[in-house]
Amino acid sequence: MTDHAGDAIVAALTTARKHGFSEVELEADGVKFKAKLVPGAPAPRPAVGAQGQASALVDAGPREVAISAPCVGFFQSANDSLSQGCTIQAGEIVATVQALGIANDVVAPEGGEVMEILVRAGDPVQFGQPIALLKVEA
Questions:
Q1: Which of 59, 69, 79, 136 could hold 125 in an S-S bridge, CB 3.0 to 4.6 Å?
Q2: What gap in Å lies between CA 100 and CA 62, rounded to an integer?
């Protein structure tokens, strides 16, 4: 793992904790990294595996997962599947982001209960911006 990859992982973990995210997944300089964060737990230190993969698994209980915008554009709900308290499946298309007249699907990365919707129809969104939070059982 290069210093750049290590710096990127530390920056991602710091940002995730600062904004209350419970999971971080990134790839930098050929190193894949995935971490699940527990509120109040000490910051995990990335460990590099034999094949250049780092992991910092902290907890196996219910966790919070963000559904993120796939691109810059304007958020539109795809149907009624994205509402607080409803259950969605992994891979389900829950919304679209309109960019240059093209609808880009917003896909649930995992299945779970929708805890909070962070944007409204027509709101501008950035690439990777969380648009909803899921409660995912381990």
A1: 69
A2: 37
